[in-house]
Amino acid sequence: MKLLTAALLLLFIAMCLASAEGVKCKCSRKGPKIRFSNVRKLEVKPRYPFCVEEMIIVTLWTRVRGEQQHCLNPKRQNTIRLLKWYRVWKEKGR
């Protein structure tokens, strides 16, 4: 009886921890199209067990709105072009 109670308690704790991990996925909503010239920083985070796809987080800067962070859809052609452009831009030392 004690073993069954301990197993159920352990299962309950594991389920609570699994639901808390889902909160860490930042990219539940994808951001708008962006201008490459406004990009300040680009972060590519790997796919975690609690996220469906990898996270691409871009930090933009504009005079009107200041700094903003957006998630981008990794499957869109515009995002793939942005990743290529950013790597080349960073290699040039800018």
Automatic annotation (TrEMBL):
Residues 24-86 form the Chemokine interleukin-8-like domain. The keyword Ribosomal protein does not apply. SUPFAM superfamilies: Interleukin 8-like chemokines (SSF54117). GO terms for molecular function: chemokine activity. It holds the Pfam family IL8. Transmembrane segments: none annotated. This is CXL14 protein. It comes from Malurus elegans.
